[in-house]
Specification:
Blueprint (H helix, E strand, L loop, with lengths): L1 E3 L8 E6 L12 H4 L3 E10 L5 E11 L3 E6 L5 H9 L5 E7 L17 E3 H6 L27 H11 L3 H6 L7 E3 H4 L2 H4 L1
Antiparallel strand pairs: 1-4, 2-5, 3-4, 3-6, 7-8
Length: 192
């Protein structure tokens, strides 16, 4: 992510790029990864009230690859920023351009939906075991075979490590196929 301006009214909201080490799969060019999926120009957001409270001031950014983690304490504007990006919040000024292709962008609610099933199924929800980019397929036909080198399970283990949730895999005995009631076992923060 490229960020210009201070990004917040008082630096309480942090925008952190998530480098997902995306590589094109067989038959997929890098052009799909190069186009920005999110561009924000001079976005200022106000919370309702009298007088309106400034949450975000003059935020500009462009995200072409990877993800974007929005972090900060409760009440500083994280959810409001997501609502603005989704087109659900109009209390402010600026420009938001986004590609909301459901195969590339996922909005997570504060209370996520968790299914009873394997950790692997939970991590891949809502997409399942197939590649989510149009026209792209795994070498194994989308079966998610973890036995091949660089298989989906290796990707999932790396993702858990990148977001600091290796302990969830340890609790599952290292088994991504472990079936649990994840909504009861994981904290809300871990679920998000």
């Amino acid at each position: 992510a490229t960020v210009a301006g201070d990004g917040s009214a008082d630096a309480r909201v942090q925008l952190l790029p998530l480098h997902l080490e995306e590589e094109p799969r067989q038959g997929c060019g890098t052009e799909a990864l190069a186009a920005p999926w999110l561009e924000i120009e001079n976005l200022s957001i106000h919370a309702p009230g009298t007088p309106p409270r400034l949450l975000i001031r003059d935020l500009s950014l462009s995200v072409s690859a990877g993800g974007l983690l929005i972090a900060g304490a409760s009440g500083v504007g994280k959810t409001t920023l997501l609502r603005a990006v989704a087109g659900l919040w109009l209390g402010g000024s600026g420009v938001v351009r986004r590609v909301l292709d459901p195969r590339r962008v996922l909005f997570l609610p504060q209370q996520p939906y968790m299914q009873a099933g394997s950790l692997r199924e939970e991590l891949l929800y809502p997409f399942g075991p197939v590649d989510v980019r149009p026209g792209c397929h795994d070498d194994d036909g989308g079966s998610g075979d973890s036995s091949r080198p660089g298989g989906r399970d290796d990707d999932l283990r790396r993702a858990l490590h990148r977001v600091g949730l290796e302990h969830v895999l340890v609790r599952a005995g290292g088994d991504l196929g472990a079936r649990r009631r994840w909504a009861e076992e994981l904290s809300v923060g871990e679920q998000q």
